[in-house]
Amino acid sequence: MSEPTEKRRVWAGPGLTVGLIVLGMALRLAQYLHNRALWLDEAALAVNIVQRGFRELLEPMIYHQNSPYAFLFSVELTTRLLGTGEHALRLMPLLWALASVPLFAWMMAEISRGEDGAIRWNRVVIGTAFFVTAKHLIFYANELRHYSTDVALCCLLVAMTARLLRHAPDTLAFRRLLIVLGVTGVVSVWFSLAMFFVLAGAGSVVLVCALRSRSRSAIAWTAAAGVLWLASFGAHNHIHARNIEARNLRADIEHNLAKGFFEVPPRSGAEARRLRDGVEQVFSYPGGFTRPGLAFFACAAGAVALARRRPALAFLLALPGIYAIFASGMSAYPFWGRYVLFAMPAMAALIVEAPAALLENRERAVRTMGVMLCVFLFLQPFAHGLRIFARSYDFGDDPRPLVAHLKTHWREGDAIYLPFHQVPPFHYYLPRAGFREEQFEREPIFTEEVENNEAYRRAYMMERMPELFAEHERIWIVFRDGAGHLPRLTETVGEVDDIGQLMEAVPGGGMTLYRYEAAENQGL
Amino acid sequence: MTGTASAERTPEHGVARVLGWSALIGFIALGVALRLRRYLDFPPFRLDEALLVENVIRRDFLELLQPMDWHQNSPFAFLYALKLVYLALGSGEWQFRLIPLVSGLIALPLFAWFVAAMGRGRSARHAMPWAVLLSGMALFAGGKWLVYWSSEVRHYSTDVVITCVLYLMALHALRSDERSAMRRFLPLLLVGLMVTWFSLSAIFILGGIGATFLFVFAYRKEWRSAAWAGGACAVWLASFFAQLAIHNHNLAARDLSHDIEATLGIGFLPIPSESFLNFKWFRETFELMFWKPGGLTYRGLAGFAFLAGCVAIAARDRVRASMLLLPFAFGLVAAALHRYPFWERYLLYLVPILFYCMAEGVALLLRQRDRRLVAAGSVLLALLLAQPYFRAAQEFARPYGENEMHELVAHVQANWQEGDLLYLDWFENIPFVHYNGRYGFSPEEYELEEHFCEQYADNEAFRAVYRARRLPELLAEHPRVWVLHGHDGAPVYALPPGEDWPVGEEVEAHFASGVSLHLFVPEDAAE
Q: By three-state DSSP, how is residue A245 classified?
């Protein structure tokens, strides 16, 4: 091979990886710059952060919110420095997401190393290409939630552990890396609850390696790291559990997250099917794969392939997911959707092993099969990821135009009634527009203990309306377009419906703002 | 040297060979058991079956060539075979389902033979491709829709047999070192001529074989063979178009084009469309093919195995690959011309090709020296088979009919009161007529819902509204109305949006597989 060709070959892998890292960062940054409005979940957390100080963030939050405390503190710090706008609130998730891109490439490089220590760049490139364009990773990069933090920390911890495992347990390098891993682990559980599973997986693998080497010092150091991680997680969890208990949220959590809790081990055919569907579902969301069955196959085949090459790494990648399934069996952590986003780096690394093993084969038909597997798995997620570059990845709900309308058409003595689903977003945006809390009435949260929550809320609202009209001349109400479970409403201005006489209907941002006045027969 | 374990390494003797044959016989036995289990349960005819059965019963041989009642079409030789069975054995479920069953059973060894012949390579002396054969048989024996159509009064299981037979004969003609071209090609020509009358889809398989033969022999400059292939193609086309002319005549006589577009439009290639190459249709249709008629839950995985198999076959023998894949192309052309839908049961004839190609894809991994790939092949096969076999076991334990009406009608008879009326919706209309000789209702005791053909955009919804109008009229004349309602996705009745009138009070409801029974009384009577 001529020298320039050889040079090109050597630089192709790293060059492509760097290009993909830049692309991944650009995709995440583009979403951030679209500056979509905060939606329900985000706004609920934002209100807590904006209204509280550092110390109060450790106490039970309103709107049933929970989040890792270090993450909350970091966002609080950002808002103190940069203000309480959407950009400031989403800065930390964005920074973690940006960091996760090179961290994932590093993790892939560590995982791909063979016995000779050389990086298999084909794995790094395929994995990174998927990771940078994965739609749910891009989405959570621009979401006031800690899920992008989960991903970045998972990449970091797995990469560090993989690097650690390259050293013999009785060496100084092993101990040094273990100390760094130990400290990172202690800190990480305050940023991400899911890191417990990653650390449990890493700890299990490192401990087995230490036990097999019979190095007493390595066993002791590993055990010490494990104890520290447990203590740190226990401290965080203590505060967390206390806050949940204080709000009596256990039943509510179990109801809302029931789809993420499984019977482990399953005791019936139906439960086994449910667990299988739940595991498959993870490949679709948050995995982003269009064909979850194929992704499941690639993951299983990749795990087997990696286990034959480097068994410790296969366990390092697979154990966090397995532990999370067991936690879901104890109703301690939902194995569903965004809660499993932390497992995406491991999932991607395992999946990549399957096409890589095919592509390394000498037979042309098998290599073609590898190319097809890549196309089948990654083409659609890749195209989807690129497609959202140009447009915002939002839900269509934007309270800002309606808040602006309220601001300009507000009269003294008016009141705003916010049905439950509109409460957090408007609670965040109305005060920013200068409204006082007493000017808007927030529908209470009737938690899921009420059997038919929607119907119950509707009945509550209909009882509340005459009382509001007794005190106010004009009532503003916001409904999301296409929302079900509403009272009978008119679309025609001037007509009377279940609430009152409709005087104005202003559509905007996926919602409609209705202005009512008391009907003449109101209350009769 | 490739990473493949050579064919010579395949254990052809001793224990492995015995195990291979045992597994093959085991899969055939399993396939037989699954098909017989459903057949011997004798579920009542569902609507589509009853429509065909009643046509066969009521018409003589000549009339079966003419436009049939209730929009029915079927290959004429198949209809004649049904008529012969009816005349010889009677009109029960097992008699009418005998030909589909026999086809389903014969298809099992034929498919094994087809896979073995295809997988052996160019010479019959090559080692038996056990990995391909057993993977393919595992898929075929438990194939959900193969089992299902083996006991339905339709010609689809016959299509499957014909596909296997045609490929076996084509392979024989390709391999044959017979000097006389007539002996080499005549059997295939004659069988091809005949099967076009048993199966409409056979023309696509014959097209694939004929086009491949023409090209291969012309390429090899074997002009005599090429002339035979061309002649065979001409004869097959003539035979097919003769049948098609009768079909077209019958369709035109009943002005069915709108009806066909409404019911089968989903299977027609969207040309012209917004974008000339409608990739979404292709992708979805490609993947759907593995669920219906493939019966495989993981469509993407199955599609991957299929394409991998195509690559493996093409790398080994392009002639075989051409014969196997051209029928898909011809099928798509027919779908583009709106002549034959590329959809569901109409594609059952392609299932032997689908499963063979998938088996090649799995075997490509299983025969590697790299144990990682062998493990990947095992995982792939396990995932492909797990759900179909789980379902097959469930259905073996508890076979289901799609129209279990007998018990419900017995309930009506047991609780019949003077003045009652039994109303049969369209889905139960003809099945009831077929069985009424057994039930013994007099004409004034029941009413049959009209056949509102597919001219209504939403036929089910239209029927539901029709029943909402008809029920009050019937309740004005009868104290009680029993409604036997087939599960077509529509409610027993539905009021149009914004309208409201008293329909009647439902005082009883009973449910069976595919059908339900509802008793209505006037609302004032209920009070």
A: helix
Contact B311 A372 (CB under 8 A): yes
**C-alpha span between B500 and B497 (Å, rounded):** 8
- Chain B positions touching A293 (Cβ under 8 A) are 297-301, 383
Q: Is B368 an interface residue toward A (CB < 8 Å)?
A: yes
The CA-based angle A63-A66-A67, given to 5 degrees, is: 135
Nearest CA in chain A to B308: A369
Q: In what order do the strands lie in the sheet with A474-480?
A: A440-442, A415-418, A474-480, A511-517, A501-508
- Chain B partners of A308 at a C-beta cutoff of 8 Å? 371-372, 375
Residue B64: partners with Cβ closer than 8 Å, 6 or more residues away:
B55, B56, B76, B79, B80, B83
CB contact under 8 A, B364 and A365: yes
Q: CA triplet B428, B434, B436: central angle to 5 degrees?
A: 90
Structure tokens at A60: 């039970």
Segment (H or E) for B519: strand B515-521
Residue of B nearest to A373 (CA): B304
pLDDT in tens, B382-438: 999 999 999 999 999 988 788 899 999 999 999 999 999 999 998 999 999 999 999
Report phi then psi at B242, rounded to 5.
Answer: -65, -45
Q: Which residues of chain B have pLDDT under 70?
A: 1-13, 121-126, 177-179, 271-277, 453-458, 488-489, 525-527
- Give residue B4's pLDDT: 47
Average per-residue pLDDT for chain B: 90
Residues whose CB falls within 8 Å of the CB of residue A2, separated by 6 or more in sequence, listed in order? none
A372·B299 Cβ contact <8 A: no
Give the residue from B483, B428, B494 showing the smallest Cα distance to B460.
B494
Count of C-beta atoms within a 10 Å radius of residue B335: 22
Q: How far is CA A82 from the centre of its chain?
A: 24
Residue located via tokens 């079966």: B64
Name residues 307-336 of chain B within 8 A of A (Cβ).
307-308, 311-312, 315
The pair phi, psi for residue B179, each rounded to 5°, is: -75, -35
Q: Across the strands, what pairs with A485?
A: none
Q: From A436, A172, B22, A61, select the one nearest A71 (Cα to Cα).
A: A61
Cβ atoms B144, B295 nearer than 8 A: yes
User: Which of helix, strand or coil describes residue B244?
Assistant: helix
Q: Is the pTM of this model over 0.90?
A: no
**Residue A407 pLDDT > 80, yes or no?**
yes
How many helices, marked H, and strands, marked E, lie in chain B?
Answer: 21, 5
CB count within 10 Å of CB B412 equals: 19
Mean pLDDT along residues A335-353: 96
Percent of chain A with pLDDT over 70: 94
Residue A293 has its nearest CB partner, among B365, B375, B383, at B383
